[in-house]
Write the structure tokens for this entry.
Amino acid sequence: MLLAVQTGEIAQYAQAVSAAIPAVEREIENLERFERLVSGVAAVLDAADDAVRVATLMCR
């Protein structure tokens, strides 16, 4: 009897874990998109920094 109860509880927790996996996968995808966004913004800022540097040198 105890084994049956424990097996049922384990099955419930296993089902909860399985149900949570898609949400975790979505969050990982969101992090990957965020990483691409940050890389893109960093590239724009690098280009702007280069433009400011060139403009500063030309105005001296």
Q: What stands out?
A: The CA atoms of residues 20 and 29 lie 15 Å apart.
